[in-house]
UniProtKB/TrEMBL annotation:
PANTHER family linked: REQUIRED FOR RESPIRATORY GROWTH PROTEIN 7, MITOCHONDRIAL (PTHR28133)
Region (Disordered): 28-96
Compositional bias annotation for Polar residues: 38-50
GO cellular component, one term: mitochondrion
Name of the molecule in the record: Required for respiratory growth protein 7, mitochondrial
Chain intervals with Low complexity compositional bias: 67-87
Source organism per UniProt: Chaetomium fimeti
Length: 291
């Protein structure tokens, strides 16, 4: 009990003493570690560095633009098939015993055919006209006979620059005085022509006579609505005149003309030649005409 009373009487010892604090300063830190100074401490970088790309990478300020591939579809043009002109079908030959002038002369001599008869004179002149016109590019066959409808020769005429061959039908008249009536007969031959020579497109009718065309023939030729021409051919085979109308030019003779060549014909005289745009056309040789 005395102890408890003694404890109450003891005065307080004073306020509590706070714990000691350790204060560091830069000077103290320098004294503690002389090598660590504010200048020697590294500064913290505020900006974050971008990673360095690899050596094989290419950097671009703009992202690459995607490439757009455009596919163009081309419409296929259908191929046009060029249809060739069907071959011409010639009527049967009027005689199986001859087909040109040499074979006819042989046949006439073998059969003792009268040279003054109508058959001899007409057949001889038709073969002569066919052979003479072949030098000018006309390939003609004799088709005359009992039912020839006034047509003696049929064939084609190959001309330079022409799109197609000109088809030709001809009447041969071995008469001394040809007149306009022969032009009217030739007009009727167009109507009765075979299928390959029917119509006006690309078909030309020729009247072949021994004498030159009279004024009446030239006027009838100019008035005709059919493409027609006239040829003066002697019995010896010399072509002395060649003319045609405007409709024949439209049928395929555009650009073709007629001229005279001096020193030709084998006798040193003048010879009729065809021209193409002002230039003389060469004659067709016999082997080329028969090919």
């Amino acid at each position: 009990m005395r102890l408890s009373l003694l404890a109450r009487r003891l005065p307080p010892l004073g306020p509590p003493i706070p714990p000691a604090r350790h204060v560091f300063s830069s000077a103290a830190a320098a004294r503690a570690n002389p090598e660590c100074t504010p200048e020697s401490q590294p500064h913290q970088q505020l900006s974050q560095e971008h990673p360095t790309p690899p050596n094989n990478a290419t950097t671009s300020p703009n992202p690459p633009t995607p490439t757009t591939t455009t596919t163009t579809t081309t419409a296929t043009t259908p191929q046009t098939t060029t249809t060739s002109t069907p071959p011409l079908i010639y009527p049967s030959a009027p005689s199986p015993h001859h087909h040109n002038l040499p074979t006819f002369l042989t046949y006439a001599a073998r059969t003792n055919l009268d040279p003054h008869s109508t058959v001899y004179v007409g057949t001889h002149f038709e073969y002569t006209a066919s052979a003479s016109l072949s030098r000018y590019g006309l390939a003609l066959r004799r088709v005359g006979g009992a039912s020839d409808n006034g047509i003696d020769l049929l064939g084609v005429w190959a001309l330079p620059g022409a799109v197609a061959e000109v088809r030709v039908l001809a009447q041969c008249k071995a008469v001394q005085q040809p007149g306009p009536r022969l032009i009217r007969e030739l007009e009727g031959a167009f109507v009765a022509a075979p299928a390959g020579w029917r119509g006006r497109g690309g078909v030309v009718g020729l009247l072949v006579a021994e004498k030159h065309a009279t004024r009446g023939i030239r006027e009838a030729l100019a008035r005709s609505r059919w493409p027609m021409g006239f040829v003066a051919c002697s019995r010896a085979g010399a072509v002395e005149q060649f003319l045609w109308n405007r409709r024949a030019e439209k049928a395929g003779l555009e650009g073709v003309g007629v001229g005279m060549r001096y020193g030709g014909g084998g006798g040193g005289g003048q010879e009729l030649v065809l021209t193409w745009k002002g230039r003389n056309l060469p004659f067709v040789r016999a082997e080329e005409a028969s090919a």
